[in-house]
Amino acid sequence: MLDLVGLKKTFNTGTVNEKTALNGLELHLKEGDFVTVIGGNGAGKSTMLNAIAGTWLVDEGSIQIDGIDVTRLSEHKRAKYLGRVFQDPMTGTAASMQIEENLALASRRGALRTLKPGITHKERDFYREQLKILDLGLEDRLTTSVGLLSGGQRQALTLLMATLKKPKLLLLDEHTAALDPKTAAKVLDATDRIVKKDHLTTVMITHNMKDAIAHGNRLIMMHEGRVIYDVSGEEKQNLHVRDLLAKFEEVSGSEFTNDRMMLA
Q1: Is residue 116 in some structural domain?
Q2: Within a domain: residue 111?
Q3: How far is residue 87's CA from residue 177's CA, in Å, rounded to a whole number?
Q4: Which of 38, 53, 78, 223 has CA atoms 20 to 30 A from the CA of 165?
């Protein structure tokens, strides 16, 4: 479903601020894979997601989504293949619009606009059923303005909007990092339910090693713009945080020093 081959990306080339963010990155995901991604500061995690989404083009290498070469496609042309949730809960929804209006925007993305009435009874019934998956009681608040929701509720709604049309690939860029632990756990539970229900191929960046172990069927660790550790199945299920730290030191030859991830 996703093939990244030899991706290279350098910022500020030829200056004192030159930084190699991706260094021959290779990653191959099968349909239905749920991959969690960890790594220290500057490991290339977000650069990888931005490269997949087309936020910026890579210097070398190729990107294929479901067999389609998107390497040189613009960001808006790739959007039809992707669902994406960012770290900031405020970026994925329109605060001045109602919950049902936000969902209508998401469900009609890419469709031809008509002069038909706004939202039908059938659509409302569908939205209620989808909102029940989140287990936050939002199915009874369809006409509530999104700006009145908590950060966790908005992030859960953003997640639902990103997956409403069953994208070929779901990108989660530390989507629970700005939430308190209890709310983050609820959003992650909703993530698991949605990914499993729709069999979505998913890449989730997280700063929390415990979450990286607990969620998904596969875990990769990045360092200096490439994958240095790739584990799945029973081996992943039996991991502990200390195992990840030891593996990082073994493969990279240095200590893991990301305080944010250590504290998490």
Answers
A1: no
A2: no
A3: 6
A4: 38
Q: What dihedral do alpha carbons 243, 27, 84, 86 form, nearest 10°?
A: 40
Amino acid letter for position 19: K
What is the distance between the alpha carbons of residues 138 and 105, in angstroms, rounded to a whole number? 17
For residue range 41-67, list pLDDT tens digits in order.
Answer: 889 999 999 999 999 999 999 999 999
pTM: 0.91
Q: How far apart are the first and last CA of the chain?
A: 31
Measuring CA to CA, which residue among 130, 148, 126, 128 is closest to residue 139? 128
Distance of alpha carbon 171 from alpha carbon 14, whole angstroms? 31
Q: Is residue 130 part of a domain?
A: no
Concatenated DSSP letters of 57-72: --SEEEEEETTEE-TT
Range of the domain at 40: 2-8+18-97+149-263
Report if residue 139 sits inside a domain.
no
Q: Which residues contact 135 (CB under 8 A, 6 or more apart)?
A: 186, 189, 190
